[in-house]
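queue> holo job accepted (LNRAV4D5)
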Amino acid sequence: MVTNPSSRSMGTVAMRWHGDSLELLDQRLLPTEEHWITAEGAAGVVQCIADMVVRGAPAIGISAAYGVALAARHAGADDWQAEVSQAIQELAKSRPTAVNLFWALERMEQVFNSCDSLSDAAKRLAAEAVRIHEEDLAANLAMADHALGVISPVQPISVLTHCNTGALATGGYGTALGVIRRLHEERLLTRVYADETRPWLQGSRLTAWELSRDDIPVTLNADGAAAAIMASGKVKWVIVGADRITANGDVANKIGTYSLAVLARHHDIGFMVVAPSSTVDMSLASGIDIPIEQRDGTEIREIRGIQLAPAGVEVFNPVFDVTPAGLIDAIVTEKGVIRNPDIIGMRALFS
Ligand SMILES: CSC[C@H]1O[C@H](OP(=O)(O)O)[C@H](O)[C@@H]1O
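queue> job finished
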């Protein structure tokens, strides 16, 4: 029996699996509209990932896994192997930076390679996608436990976060936002400062929405205000997610993360990265090897069709940057914590 893991996670969810169809909450429309899209087969999932209906490294991987399951479900009896293979290839092209996508597709491909009939593939690929989803939720809960051990606050603290790493970006609960959620549950959180996260505004549109829904105290700030917030002594930790972590502990995350790490070091504030092991890519030696997605300049020139800049002005829009391991105090995964990450610490946990 294929279940919907989202039904077991508390509160906000990004996706709903029904055994034969996948619904995605359209994150482009939040916070003003809660609209669910039914993905039209694997091609529909590719479109939803590329257009950022669903986004966030773990959520992309989970959605892609469901996309492969849908490909098997919709495949023709004669050509099912070619159709599923093709779907895996198309899904792999949907976004380049978050390694969770490729990790999930590899897991699905392994199952697919051992299937001997279409009905076997349809059943087992759906079950594997659900497992990937469930494991991600469990990893988030485990990471929150580990992170609390690192922070070990004796009294409530305020923290600063960037982008959206919550239930919307994952299989549920969240990575960095899961840690923040746990601090709140333990009454150890005074307030979250949430960077608005230009240009796509994951912070203002998604994080502020998620936290407000759960009555977690949040103050939204322009990205440029982070330095002043840190200088004021208000925050003890900067807590962020990741899209890819390389063998030496370098971290690709939403554009603007690197500058936060520099600022945190200057102000002697802890800098924590929270990500499941599916975000770790030990095949890349360092962050310089990470493919950084460049998105269309329209994301900076306009907001929802409203012109913000001279039409056609040249735009530089890399949507991720790389934070060098040396600026990170702790990488928290469900397998454990790497303090002051380097290749030795990474290998100790991931090889
Ligand atoms: C726990 S999500 C990791 C990550 O995904 C976000 O990117 P995007 O919204 O472009 O998919 C961001 O970098 C988050 O930190």
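queue> The chain has eleven helices and 16 strands.
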